[in-house]
Design goal:
This protein folds into 2 domains: 1-45, no CATH class; 50-80. The radius of gyration is 15 Å and the shape is globular. Residues 1-6 have low confidence and may be disordered. By secondary structure, the protein is mainly α. The protein has helices at residues 9-18, 61-79. It is built from 2 helices and no strands.
């Protein structure tokens, strides 16, 4: 099976898992709803995750994308 629609990375992980390509791990951010066939492992006492970034020199495109995703999620979290 070829998975052409990449979409959001958490959804991509779900599609691979549901398609039988192995296991995956994603963080269930507020509003996260897992796909049918995906088992959720809840960690109710898990402390909040703090993420930071530091670099020197020119960022790679993947690093820029990661920082953009982190910033977008931070904006959502601040708004709630």
């Amino acid at each position: 099976m070829v998975l052409r629609n990449r979409g959001h990375s958490a959804r991509l992980i779900e599609r691979y898992v549901v398609s039988g390509y192995g296991i995956g791990l994603a963080v269930a951010v507020p509003g996260f709803k897992p796909a049918a066939g995906v088992r959720v492992l809840r960690l109710p006492d898990f402390p909040p995750v703090v993420v930071g970034a530091s670099w020197s020199g020119k960022l790679s495109n993947i690093s820029k994308q990661l920082l953009a995703e982190l910033e977008a999620e931070a904006q959502v979290q601040r708004a709630e």
